[in-house]
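Input:
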Amino acid sequence: MTMRGYLRADGRKGIRNQVIVAYLVECAHHVAREIALLDREKAHVIGFPGCFPNPYAQKMMERLCTHPNVGAVLLVSLGCESFNRVQLERVVADSGRPVETLVIQKTGGTKSAIERGRAFVADAVKTLDNTPRAPMDLSDLVIGTVCGGSDGTSGISGNPATGRAFDQLVAAGATCIFEETGELIGCEDIMASRAATPELAIELRASVEKAARYYAELGYGSFASGNADGGLSTIEEKSMGAYAKSGASPISGLIKPGDIPPKGGLYLMDVVPDGPVQFGFPNISDNAEIVEMMASGAHMTIFVTGRGSVVGSAISPVIKVAANPDMYERLHEDMDINAGRIIDGTADLETVGTEIMDLVGQVAAGEPTKSEQLGHQEFILTYKSFEPIGPACLPA
Amino acid sequence: MPDIDPRLIILNDHDTVAVVRCAIDAGEKVQIGDAVVTLMQAVTMGHKLARASMQPGDKVLKYGVPIGSATMAIAVGDHVHLHNMKSDYTPTYALTETGDIA
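Output:
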């Protein structure tokens, strides 16, 4: 299959062409969901539940609504929330995308709002057919990776196999993002040794030290009970397994959620908030991490799971890699790749890594992943606070 | 160290634990280095067995790096997990089947 991207006004190319229905406070969620049901495949719901303003959430929504996989946007506001819908609409309009804001308090109520929203979506879906297409190759792609429901097999099969795929993607000029600094605790030294510059090495190390402090204050590591059932004993053990997803390429830079990597290469995303601990845990569930990588432009996410996650995502496809043969059997409906063959000895890391790489190309060319076929469109966004990255984070 | 049981994976020569490839029942014999050990308890895939004896405070090595410290004496072949090792960073939280916190 050849890749033909959806060409956007900013020059980026999308691999999907979705209509986004975005609620700007939880109070508008039901209306947004009902509107999107008109076209479950084309219309995806995202949103921010809070009524209090938050610059991080504003930036995330702006980036997500102008993501290359997005062709048109409907904003659904209750009317009295603090989210700056005017600014969000302006950013989307400036990106050349069709956009409309529906304020429920001005439309006559739930029923009228749903009707008007559905009319917009129906029109937008038709308009999307006219989106210009352009040839696309691996160097146009931004790929994120996440592991969730990890166990003692993730770190020796699915994660290092994804690392091999990342090495191939980076070599082909793609932009790859790994993240969850709270799951790199214990890996600071080996990771810093891969930094493109000594100054970046200091930043990488500092991001993990920040995560360790943050989690220590909260009293829990980034470690779920199921991780222990699956044989993982400590956060640093889980970290070493998670770290393997990054492969062996040099690390080109450190970004924060919503920062767009400037060129191809491998980037660490620092997902732990800056400043004093506030708003709770940094990443309350796997989808929060996927959302943050999408905000930085990720066209798709490679998701390695040992215990067996079933999630997908709004906006960008998720490829699910099963880390062990038992879970692959149990959840084969949801798994795209069986890295469990590495555990039972029927395939090696290189073979599975190439399989992942090939699937990335097919999904970019339009082939739906399992979670897309099953209708998964999970999305979550909550409060956070970040300082901008320092000058050493993106060496020239 | 010489031969290793095919049901185990050693990720790094320096490791003091091996990873279990598939479930092994209690009472089964497992070869670890020169020793043949009878498992005292069943272990499931992804769990760890000790390759070396360890004293409290000794670093537990996997992937060639420390993944925590032993909290009691560990013999070759012992299941190495929450009951006999701990994180050197943040404590591990785990629920049991009955809903209790381990």
